[in-house]
Amino acid sequence: xxxxxxxxxxxxxxxxxxxxxxxxxxxxxxxxxxxxxxxxxxxxxxxxxxxxxxxxxxxxxxxxxxxxxxxxxxxxxxxxxxxxxxxxxxxxxxxxxxxxxxxxxxxxxxxxxxxxxxxxxxxxxxxxxxxxxxxxxxxxxxxxxxxxxxxxxxxxxxxxxxxxxxxxxxxxxxxxxxxxxxxxxxxxxxxxxxxxxxxxxxxxxxxxxxxxxxxxxxxxxxxxxxxxxxxxxxxxxxxxxxxxxxxxxxxxxxxxxxxxx
Length: 261
Known about the structure:
Elements: H1 3-14, H2 23-35, E1 39-42, E2 45-47, E3 52-58, H3 62-74, H4 78-88, E4 91-92, E5 101-104, E6 116-121, E7 139-145, E8 152-155, E9 159-164, E10 167-169, E11 175-178, E12 181-183, E13 198-203, E14 208-213, E15 220-224, E16 227-230, E17 239-240, E18 246-249, E19 252-258
Parallel strand pairs: 2-4, 3-5, 9-12
Antiparallel strand pairs: 1-2, 3-6, 7-8, 7-19, 9-13, 10-11, 13-14, 14-17, 15-16, 15-18, 18-19
């Protein structure tokens, strides 16, 4: 047996999820592989030397490709998750760290028998860095009706999840979603909030936050200047948010303020 093959077997024994086919296994393995690229500087300091992490996901069929696309772009938030993972281990990283994701059906040597491949890039010395878009504003959500983990939230993520409970588990007891705005489990009003009720996404092109219902049982309504706007579960983009909007998740409600400190 070659040394490289032996190393592969040892890696699989130590990290069996790295060769897994389920999205949760792929997700865990690629986050670990990215975090492992942080370099120790001594004195407990670490630095992540790349400003771009290119992620490729290998699909077995067109149906699998559609499934991975939906998960990678609608369920995961790799840019935020990688930043949080690096911060948790005390590693500094470039402010403009980018994480583009591509789904392909073309297998190649870069995959090495796995369902994902990573490429780490660093702008060459003297190379002009791409212009960074203006920073997105803070999103403030104040709870008006119902009880949540917090009475008010100040959020800056690209995707913000709203629902009941902080962590939503799958049938196997594994965490499949973390709600940024989490209503409590007990209470008549709180029970009208689905566990995966809605999400808010930042769109850089329109420079706006958009609210989308995720198939909730009680529906999502937005009240603006005395007018009710239904947020349809069939509208993938959703409704553009404005300061002063009141968002009803079932019978629970939050007030929206965009920008400010």
